[in-house]
Specification:
Elements (H helix, E strand, L loop, with lengths): L21 H8 L7 E7 L2 E7 L2 E6 L2 E8 L3 H9 L1 E6 L5 H6 L13 E3 L5 E3 L4 E13 L2 E13 L17 H16 L8 E2 L1 H8 L3 H14 L2 E4 L3 E4 L4 H28 L7 H13 L1 E2 L2 E2 L2 H16 L5 H9 L2 H8 L9 H15 L2 H24 L6
Antiparallel strand pairs: 1-2, 1-5, 3-4, 4-9, 5-8, 6-7, 8-9, 10-12, 11-12, 13-14
Helix pairs in contact: 4-6, 5-6, 7-13, 8-9, 8-12, 9-11, 12-13
Length: about 400
Amino acid sequence: MTTPSAPPGAGRPSATGDLVEPVAFRHVVGHLASGVTVITTADDTGRYGMTASSVTSLSADPPMMLACLNDSVPSAAAVTRSRRFAVNVLGEGGGELAHRFAVPSADKFLGVATHEGPAGLPLLSDAIAHLECEVTEQIVGGTHTVHIGRVVSATARDGQPLTYFRGGFGRFSFTRDDDAYRRARERVLQRMHGVGEVLDVDALAADLDIDAAAAFYALTRLATDGLVRRDPELGYVVTPFDAAVSDATFDARKIIELGVLAHVGEQLEHGTFDRARLTVIRGHFESMSDLLVGDRFVDFDAYLDANYAFHESVVALTDNAVLTATFGALSIKNVMTRSFGSTPITSRRFVEAQRGMLDGLESGDVARANQAVVDYCDLAKRRVREILAHTGGQL
């Protein structure tokens, strides 16, 4: 069997250990808007599979999935042992598969078309989308365990998802859960919950008028954002944000980008720099610029994505995967969400500083680009201090 190919622009499956590009990930998880999945895995004892509905995307950058599985099911135990799982999104004609993997059987895979994914997991060939995941965290809650997985391969093909099967399968609540996350994040950013406050799942559910599952999903995503941390004894705790955190993060980005520009300068001297690569950076810059009108964000989340893509593309000019990963580990988006995301007001000077960086690259004036990087860092640190001045020094 061959792996179904992804539609144009969706990207090809990545090798085990590589992260899937956010654009490709968003395309694939779009198949999860309302559907039924089968979780598959394998270890030394064989192949395992189970129908599951408590499955959803957790993060696009980095790409993460969340699967909540009943510990009494052999497949769940296999996921715990192997620390990896695959999400198979069933198409509208997949009712028989959903039923087969929902009931006990000596061999659920008997007569089922399968193929091995890039990460080595068994995939259902008739599914309309596949995501292979490596478990990064397992959280036990009563009779179930929440498996949080880093997506290492993702493919999708055309088709409508299975949304309901003989009254036995519920609908996905992706839209509802995403709304719960946004509202919970807004409460934290607006400081309706103080630093160090423990966010209880049931209390948050009551405050937002949602069920406990949606509240748990929201808290898990807030933890990924760095807005809360999970304490083994207390639960989810609102994390502090101050000038020291901001300064360290923006300074680290400055140091990385100055190193990148030094590398570009060497390439320019030797005539080996590929100027065509600046077209991608220019596209991200223009998208970012369009999302800032005067000194107000048009759409902060979209601006943040474009801003991150701009700087990540600059770092990528080195073709150094380790450096790109180091840049990602700075959690720049979390810092900007926690600070700049707390107000719709910003400054057009940020865009102008980044324009100077791009103009310097396009003209081969590395000194100009260097100064723009320094200016942008100083602007960011000063703006965070202005915001913190109104909040007692912490957010």
